[in-house]
Amino acid sequence: MEPYKNHTSTAALMNRSNVDTDQIIPKQFLKRVERSGFGAHLFHDWRFNDDGSDNPDFELNKAEFQSAKILVTGDNFGCGSSREHAPWAIADYGFNTIISSSYADIFYNNCFKNGILPIRATPEQLRLIAEEINAHEGCSLTINLEMQTVETPLGNNFAFDLDPFRKENLLHGLDDIGLTMKQTDKIDEYEQKHRRLYPWLWT
Amino acid sequence: MKKTMYEKIWDSHLVCEAAGQAPLVYVDRHLMHEVTSPQAFEGLRNANRKIRNPHSILATMDHCVPTKDRELPIADPIARKQIETMADNCRENGLNLYDIKNPNNGVIHIVVPEHGFVHPGMITVCGDSHTATHGAFGALAFGIGTSEVEHVMATQTLPQTKSKTMLVKVDGKLPKYSSAKDIVLAVIGKIGTAGGTGHVIEFAGEAVMDLTMEGRMTLCNMAIEGGARAGLVMPDEKTYEYLKGREFTPSGAEWDTALAYWKTLPSDEGAEFDTVVTLTADDIAPQVTWGTSPEQVAPVSGTVPSPEDFNDEGKRQACISALNYMDLEPKTKITDIPVNLVFLGSCTNGRIEDFRIAAEVTKSHKVADGVTAIAVPGSYKVKEQAEQEGLDKILIDAGWEWRDPGCSMCLAMNGDELTPGQRSASTSNRNFEGRQGKGGRTHLVSPAMAAAAATAGHFVDIRNL
Q1: Model pLDDT, residue A202
Q2: DSSP character at residue B436
Q3: Model confidence at B465, in pLDDT bands (50, 70, 90)?
Q4: How confident is the model at residue B20 (pLDDT cuts 50, 70, 90)?
Q5: Which of B9, B10, B32, B39 to substitute to test the interface with A, most A CBs within 10 Å?
Q6: Given its phi and psi angles, is residue B348 left (phi above 0), alpha (psi -120 to 50 degrees) or beta?
Q7: Shortest CA distance to B365 belongs to which of B273, B269, B465, B293?
Q8: What are B158's strand-pairing partners?
Q9: Residue A136 carries which DSSP code?
Q10: What pLDDT does B43 receive?
Q11: Residue in chain B lying closest to A177 (CA)
Q12: Can you tell me the distance from the alpha carbon of B111 to that of B58, in angstroms, rounded to the nearest whole number?
């Protein structure tokens, strides 16, 4: 995984709440056995007309948002299924940062495995940023992961909370499995005890 | 210190807490299906890693499988490749797979309990959000992403942050014709789809303990629709009775050891929860969702709301957009909403009791003109049992289609889907836009309500039948 670098990038606003994983990547695209190529289908049913042309009314199709790396969106983003195809599609499309007031738990976890920083803002912080983007479509935000800050052109700046473990892994692009494997002796030790206490699980 | 059931399971599964890393918890059971696993196997292969405990895994094929003409090759080449990849991965790694032709095949969250694969106190994971189902046994069961599937295969552990605890207490007695599905829809209507975020829910109270094991599975299954990663019900005599004698259940002296352990699991009297929600079962009428989120739900005796009924601006906007998508007018009586298609099945309501109640409601009636009704048993075992009891005959005589098992129209990956504008009464778990097919409109209900809607061609208050 690539380390997450501080950046200043265009922020796209999709001001909708409870965006579920069926919208992020509809089920007809879940049949593939690869991890790549899902960006072409991100928000498919909203993004495209029935004839396959771009839906001009869909937020992300606006010219001002075309090179956006930051997605600003409403509450409870990523609710629904556990499909990691959702963050795969978001990353493959080009986003590496999401700003919302809350996320569904499994989606939130999945982001960190794919180099995406899901920033939790307060509802008021989110409202101010959304207003600013609405007034200045195409504006850029500055994300500093080390400092845990978001800066905007109009100064609607804020600091966000983040689990220090997750931050470390994002900053260094660490492989979770490799880290856990360093604890193999602890896992072995636990399993010895486990076999003794729950022998029926091992037969 | 007094502990909740969640805290007991957490403590007993903590492997280590290394400096600078999230706590590592041990995983007892790992469930798999074809959609969320192929990239994990590929990741293992690329890193030259092996599966640590193949015996901890039970795999099935359910999401992409056809529910008719099963003997023919799968028509969709991409789905066929996914199914073949699953078979290859399981064969290469020596995993227990109930493949498409296996008499044990079915929806993962139906077949796992049938074989007694998950027991009280276990940590169980699956690349599937409805893994919460197995909380019915007092197991901590939750959905994970594909990277985590790979992590569990390689290490048998997961880095986890501890959840908060929520007690949902449902006191009193559930009225006749209200079911576990109605309890959980009422809970979600009350707490909202983000109400349980960051929490594990423990369901308790008289109405919960009165439920059968299958009812408890339906209840825990939809904990995720309330935002919680897991739902739990404490194990009791019904749990032990259900498990006894099943394939993966311990026997003899091991049964006694297991039972003694399971009995230590329920939350201690007076243990504290971060959040407590209470409901009275006597007030829970059969529920029908009217919108595009499971929290947009009303009792069958109610009406579709108006945007101005919501004080919260976000919920008001969500109501406007849902009414638009669902093509419903505010104040429409729920019982005036027509349906074109009825789907009975899914990991929420695809068990034998669901088919029994549907057959009871259907008996001697016919499916209404213009309505297609599809019954999809959750597994071959459910199908066989239903056929032994003659439930298939009642449904077929009434005009229902009787299919082979699979996830089918719950998420419409296998070709069973709504056409644009079609409106369903569905016993599944999600009514998101396009979930059952682009432009399709889904109303979530219990099996009894679905069967009654099939006969009437619109929703009916089954309490008045």
Answers
A1: 81
A2: T
A3: confident
A4: confident
A5: B39
A6: alpha
A7: B465
A8: B25
A9: S
A10: 95
A11: B151
A12: 9
Q: Which of B15, B197, B411 sits opposite A104 (nearest CB)?
A: B197
Cβ atoms of B156 and A187 within 8 Å: the answer is yes
Give the global pTM. 0.96
Measuring CA to CA, how many Å separate B416 from each of A151, B60, B100, B237, B375? 47, 19, 17, 39, 12
Of all residues in chain B, the one with the smallest CA distance to A83 is B145
CB nearest A183 (choices: B16, B28, B314) = B16
Helix (H, G, I), strand (E, B) or coil at B171: strand
User: Could you give the CA distance from residue B84 to residue B68 in angstroms, rounded to a whole number?
Assistant: 18
Q: Alpha-carbon distance B395 to B7, whole Å?
A: 45
Find out whether B44 and B150 touch, Cβ atoms under 8 Å: yes
And the tokens for A154?
């109009």
Evaluate the CA torsion angle B317, B320, B325, B330 in order and state its sign.
positive
Walking along chain A (203 residues) 10 residues at a time, the average pLDDT comes out as 95 95 94 94 96 96 97 96 96 98 96 97 97 97 98 98 94 92 96 90 78
Interface confidence, given as ipTM, is: 0.94
CB contact under 8 A, B157 and A109: no
Query: In chain A, what residues touch B153 (CB-CB under 8 Å)?
Result: none
Q: Distance between the two ends of chain B, CA-based, in angstroms? A: 51
